[in-house]
Amino acid sequence: MKRRDLLAGAAMAGALPAWGTSTMTLPDMDLHDPFIVTDTASKTYWLFTKNHPAFTGRKAIGVMAYSSRDLKHWNQPELVFQLPEGVWATEGCWAPEVHHWRGKWYLFVTVHNDSLPLTEPSPVPGQRTYRRSTVLAVADQPNGPFKLVRDGEPVVSKELMTLDGTLYVDPKGKPWMVYAHEWLQLRVGAFAAVRLDDELRAIAPPRELFRGNASPAARPQQGQGIIVTDGPQLYRTADGSLHMLWSSWGDDGYFQTLSRSKSGDLFGQWEHLPVWLAKGSGHGMLFRTLDGQWMLVVHRPFKNARGKLYDVRERAGGFELVRQRVDLDLDPTPLPPSAAKAP
């Protein structure tokens, strides 16, 4: 019998509390590219990240989800998606995101197969291009289980190296996928958007939003002019302006920054704001707590990443980073707001 089945049986017998199988805190939780869904119906936070077999007991290429009622105490993660055998992808499940769309919950996740080369060679010496794409899976509940959509067909052309896809719904209620176009294919990574139909299929060619070197904070890497673009997330403030949270590499390592479209249009023009957090902080997302307050979750450091939580305030024309919630993330080396001053 599997460990989780034993724990579930113990809970039913009264040996464990009805809620959860074990208690963890963020310093215990190996995670990268965290994504949090606030499920108001069950008063639960679900934190999604790539599957780690040591935590789930499942040797699978997939996605796992931790759960919490208070953002401080978390339950042992469960495997919520497994890449099935026989599909084109053999690795990945990076940057999972879960979005509600038309009564279903959709998982956006990045997978790849480095043994499937692309036609177009890499412009970066010593590098090569291969299949890497964001694919979709669907479930009836935010915690899955998720089933692969369209047998893992990429949302955009398989000839494009796409990652970190996110759902954006425009003011007319029309869905788009915004994603990072990989530096391996461009040298200077970019963000692009593709229009989707109600089944979340691409119905038009993708359009580029901007390239990573548009931000004055981004720095070339490896002496080859490489600019990284990661983790786009889109949010609209009460004044109608549109904000993209994203990450790259700068003078102080991996960083989290914001760009703003004052027009509110997805295609800008975009202005690029100062760095919010650095020192290995990045690939974050904003979410609302059960009491409706904005928070930011990021991972830090880049390697052996752990989740960090910040209070965020919406203000005229944007967002302000207020303070790190060390009472929740128990960070022994917090990055204070003075080092993460909002623009």
From TrEMBL:
**What does UniProt give as the signal peptide span?**
1-20
Query: Per the database entry, which stretches of residues form a coiled coil?
Result: none
Q: Which InterPro entries match?
A: Glyco_hydro_43, Glyco_hydro_beta-prop_sf, Glycosyl_Hydrlase_43
Keywords (alphabetical) are: Glycosidase, Hydrolase, Signal
Q: Which PANTHER family match?
A: BETA-XYLOSIDASE (PTHR42812), SECRETED PROTEIN (PTHR42812:SF14)
The family note in this entry says: Belongs to the glycosyl hydrolase 43 family.
**Name of the protein this chain belongs to:** Beta-xylosidase
Lineage of the source organism? Answer: Bacteria, Pseudomonadati, Pseudomonadota, Betaproteobacteria, Burkholderiales
